[in-house]
């Protein structure tokens, strides 16, 4: 089952890592490997959400999502989108950006370095909003309860995450402007660009979230109508209307999944800029990682289990928060690529280990509960 489901992903991984070595040696190999792990980990919750919705669709629409949908996800969001970000930030054409990346690495690096403050501000704000909206939400399962419990209570304040994100952006832009003036003002004019880029990142998050919410509401409406139509069909013996509604509901499911996948892709793509500016390495790492999203989705649908490792989603969002902070810091200070990559991987690995420990505690508690006179209580968080 595992080899059949993940076979293509394993093959693409091998090809991607070999290509990385040929392109930039063992350092490139390490960066691509980190990007793969980061993308897979950050997309784990994406696969869980996809599987939960995909299992409601018929075989035709499942195939559409796992073929056309994956092409859009891999080539559109993971390969084309980073090029577009670089092109817009550096004020060059997408084709020119790719040409420079391959044929004039020094000039490309100069342009990307010059545009990095705006890329970091945009990405940092987008990722920070994802993290804040997650950490301020009340949830049944908590990982680091000493952090999550009080923050969930604070999250009841309306628009708190937006306010905090804007404060962080304002402080970053003002600090950047102050330091630029103190060092001769070479980058003083970019403080405004940082502010505008950060606001653009916030707006992008709100638009993507709004679209996801719109399609989710549409999906719920169609499912409710389908359920009512099924009841009517049972009473009247007609089934034509049910088929039409099922097809329409499946179409909305497909659109909803595509918007969700795009929104989940943003964190991986933008987080990648905290690790490397090289389009080629980014494309290799994120492309390989996207293949695992498809395989994980298929595996979860076929296995029928979605919550074996309940803290992985928490770890992925803490990694997003760490990447957001690191991106905002890199507006002014340089941080080694390996350090930024390993911080995210370490947080995700920690959450996986915590999930395994939780599962073991629950299994032990169930075993002890079977024994007479034992009333062991198991904690669900750290």
What does the overall shape look like? Answer: globular
Alpha-carbon Rg, integer: 23 Å
State the distance separating the first and last CA atoms.
Answer: 33 Å
Helix content: over 70%
- How many DSSP H or I helices? 12
Low-confidence spans: pLDDT under 50, at least 5 residues? 240-246, 374-380
Counting DSSP E segments of at least 2 residues, the number of strands comes to 0
- Structural class comes to mainly alpha
Q: What is the averaged pLDDT score?
A: 75
Largest sheet report: none
Work out the strand percent.
Answer: under 5%
Order of helices and strands: HHHHHHHHHHHH
Please tell me about this protein's structure.
This is DUF475 domain-containing protein. Residues 212-239 form a coiled coil. The protein is an all-alpha fold. Helices cover 82% and strands 0% of the residues. It is built from 12 helices and no strands. The chain has helices spanning 2-42, 44-54, 59-90, 94-103, 105-135, 145-154, 160-182, 190-236, 240-272, 279-303, 312-329, 337-370. α1 (2-42) crosses α9 (240-272) and α5 (105-135) packs antiparallel against α7 (160-182). Mean pLDDT is 75; it is low at 240-246 and 374-380.
Outline of this structure?
82% of the residues lie in helices and 0% in strands.
Which helices and strands appear, and what pairs or packs with what?
Layout: H1 2-42, H2 44-54, H3 59-90, H4 94-103, H5 105-135, H6 145-154, H7 160-182, H8 190-236, H9 240-272, H10 279-303, H11 312-329, H12 337-370
Helix pairs in contact: 1-9, 1-10, 1-12, 2-9, 2-10, 3-4, 3-5, 3-9, 3-10, 4-5, 5-7, 5-8, 5-9, 5-11, 7-8, 8-9, 11-12
């Amino acid at each position: 089952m595992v080899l059949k489901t993940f076979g293509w992903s394993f093959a693409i991984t091998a090809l991607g890592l070999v290509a990385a070595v040929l392109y930039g040696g063992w350092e490139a190999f390490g960066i691509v490997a980190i990007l793969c792990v980061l993308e897979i980990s950050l997309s784990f919750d994406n696969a869980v959400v996809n599987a939960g919705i995909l299992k409601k669709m018929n075989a035709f629409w499942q195939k559409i999502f796992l073929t056309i949908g994956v092409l859009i996800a891999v080539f559109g969001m993971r390969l084309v989108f980073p090029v577009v970000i670089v092109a817009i930030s550096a004020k060059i054409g997408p084709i020119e950006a790719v040409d420079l990346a391959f044929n004039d690495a020094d000039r490309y690096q100069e342009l990307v370095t010059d545009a990095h403050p705006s890329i970091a501000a945009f990405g940092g704000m987008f990722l920070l909003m994802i993290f804040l909206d997650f950490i301020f939400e009340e949830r049944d399962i908590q990982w680091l309860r000493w952090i999550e419990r009080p923050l969930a209570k604070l999250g009841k304040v309306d628009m708190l995450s937006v306010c905090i994100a804007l404060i962080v952006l304002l402080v970053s832009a003002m600090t950047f402007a102050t330091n630029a003036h103190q060092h001769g003002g070479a980058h003083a004019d970019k403080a405004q660009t940082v502010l505008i880029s950060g606001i653009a990142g916030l707006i992008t998050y709100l638009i993507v979230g709004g679209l996801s919410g719109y399609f989710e509401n549409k999906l719920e409406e169609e499912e409710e109508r389908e359920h009512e139509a099924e009841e009517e069909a049972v009473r009247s013996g007609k089934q034509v209307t049910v088929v039409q509604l099922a097809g329409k509901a499946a179409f909305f499911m497909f659109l909803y999944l595509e918007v969700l996948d795009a929104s989940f892709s943003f964190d991986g793509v933008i987080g990648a800029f905290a690790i490397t500016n090289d389009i080629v390495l980014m494309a290799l790492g994120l492309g390989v990682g996207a293949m695992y999203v498809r395989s994980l989705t298929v595996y979860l649908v076929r296995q029928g289990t979605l919550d074996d490792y309940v803290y992985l989603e928490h770890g992925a969002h803490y990694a997003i928060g760490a990447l957001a902070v690191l991106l905002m810091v890199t507006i002014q200070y340089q941080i080694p690529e390996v350090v930024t990559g390993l911080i995210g991987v370490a947080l995700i690995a920690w959450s996986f280990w915590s999930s395994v420990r939780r599962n073991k505690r629950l299994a032990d508690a169930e075993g002890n509960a079977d024994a007479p006179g034992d009333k062991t209580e198991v904690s669900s968080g750290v």
